[in-house]
Amino acid sequence: MICVFYNKYFLQGATDGDRVCFELMPDDERQCDACKTTCFLSAISCLCKPSMLIDEIKTNHLVLVDILVCINHIDQLCSCSPRRYCLWYRYTLDEMSNMLDALRERLDLCQKWKLLVNRVISTDHQTLIGMIESK
């Protein structure tokens, strides 16, 4: 979804935004103004409406922001040009890709474990049936 935002808005001239630890913000301060969902990974604001503090990770300073919206509701943010928009994000695309790869590896290990357990159960089941039939 961030790629969609990047393609749609940053290529049109949006230049601002930075990393944010959303989990350090109170839930009511990181809600999408349109749908009221809590923003965890990214949010959009505009320079035209400052009043809330956001603590940037990289620069370690506070930024004033009034209205945040999730990426799904960027069209409801304001009528300003995308050049005035700020993308606040928790992880870079590279970090998200690395997390996805790690998750895929763990899922693969779980699936291999499930197959092994199913083989053991199937084998034991056949042995049990053989023991019952031999009695």
The number of domains is: 2
Spatial sequence of strands, sheet with the most strands:
1-5-2
Rg, nearest Å: 24 Å
- On the 0-100 scale, what is the average pLDDT? 76
Shape: elongated
| Number of helices in the DSSP assignment | 2
For the structure shown, list the relevant keywords.
elongated, three-stranded mixed sheet, alpha+beta, two-stranded antiparallel sheet, 135 residues
Descriptive account of the structure:
The protein has 135 residues and is an alpha+beta fold. The chain has two domains: 2-90, no CATH class; 95-135. It contains two helices and five strands. The chain has a three-stranded mixed β-sheet, with no helix packed on it. A two-stranded antiparallel sheet has the order 3-4. A hairpin with a 6-residue loop joins strand 3 (52-55) and strand 4. The longest helix has 42 residues, at 93-134. It is elongated and about 70 Å long. The relative contact order is 0.18. The model has no long low-confidence stretch (mean pLDDT 76).
